Amino acid sequence: MNDTNKRTTMNGKPVLRVPVKTVLNLESGFQAKLLCDGPALSLGDACAYSCAFCYVPSVYQKLDRVRVALTAAGKKHEDVVILREAALQVLRGQLTHPGGAPRFMTEDDRRVVYASPADDVAANLDLCRATVEACKLILSLTNWQIRLLSKSTLLPKIAGDLLTWAEKAPGVPGQVLNYVSEESVRRRMIFGVSTGTLDDGLAHAFEQGTPRVSKRIQSLHVLQDNGFRTFAMVCPSLPLDGVADYREFAEAAAAQLRYEKCEHVWAEVINLRGESFTRTIKALQAEGFERAAARLENVHRDAFAWEEYNRATFLAHAKACDGMVGKLRFLTYVKPDTRGWWEKHIAKGAVIL
Question: Which end of the chain has fewer CB within 10 Å, C or N?
Fold first, then answer.
């Protein structure tokens, strides 16, 4: 995704490029999910991974630029990688005034920017390099913090590359407008990996092209052991057989992701967006996970069963985070008849959407 990168394929998918005016949404909906303070960064419109449950195709394929590109290529959204043309130049333009002076360089503006709503920030080395360059711009031209989420194992590389840059770049005239030290990289970068299940085989069934969950968790440990800020993203998790199974899963997630070393823990069940349910059910069936597929199909058909699954998942995570005040951020979409129950559990970490 580097502006000079002209690769025609990534992760086995053809690459499409679309012209854009922005890559940074200053008032994104991800603020409601507490992932950022408004700003969200996307350098692309279609991911290099292929997760069956992904909501992005149902939303982004409606955008004019994406629809035109897909029509011209004769492709579906999930079958391509879409990069935003000249993304780094566009980002610099959004962060600076016409004369080049920073727009957001105020001491008390320490907002968190989230990356990425639309594509994985580290799905391959090219995307890692582009993410590093985007982070350099934000670190240099603002005092913002940056939250990166990925299903890859390459976040430690991004962290290491930023540290190497910080050691060489600070204070060099004409290169940066903000003093970026190793300490400020550690203070302003926040890293998390997505782990909806802890089972490598199950994850492989519906997260095509991603590294093993166990390897992602190892990469999170590397970041934690080297003093970086981290967070957990346990979603989307699938329905299980009963309360004991939910508790076992939540406790295992807390232990393996080392919640005590994570600033926050986001969790969520799978939600109906576009064809996310049907794609995931088919993917599970294709890989022989018939029982998991049947459970998912049941909550898909039955609103009461879905709500029970949602509540059981939340209560298990709340129990696993007991004593960690403010740690859990469980995302839930409510209806008028369920809102009351969830409002009573806000103090335990329910985030009502």
Answer: C
Token readout for 278 is: 């049907």
Tell me how crowded residue 56 is: count the other CB atoms within 10 A of its CB.
23
Q: Is residue 205 part of a domain?
A: yes
- For the chain, how many structural domains are there in total? 1
Token output for 325? 């005040």
Flag residues of the chain having pLDDT under 70. 1-5, 169-178, 274
Nearest-CA neighbor of 252 among 290, 285, 205, 240?
A: 240
pTM, two decimal places: 0.95
Please name the amino acid found at residue 251.
Answer: E
Q: Are 299 and 309 in contact, with CB atoms under 8 Å apart?
A: yes
Q: Is the Cβ–Cβ distance between 78 and 54 less than 8 Å?
A: yes
- Of 198, 316, 210, the C-alpha closest to 253 is 198
The whole-number pLDDT of residue 169 equals 65
Amino acid identity at 188: R
pLDDT at 4: 41
- Is there a domain that residue 26 lies in? no
158: three-class secondary structure by DSSP: helix
- Report if residue 137 sits inside a domain: yes
- Could you check whether the bond before residue 236 is cis, i.e. omega within 30 degrees of 0? yes
Range of the domain at 300: 102-352
58 within some domain: no
Q: Coil, strand, or helix at residue 146?
A: strand
**Residue 212: CATH number of its domain:** 3.80.30
Radius of gyration of the chain (CA): 20
d(CA 189, CA 139): 9
Q: Which residue has the tokens 């409606």?
A: 62
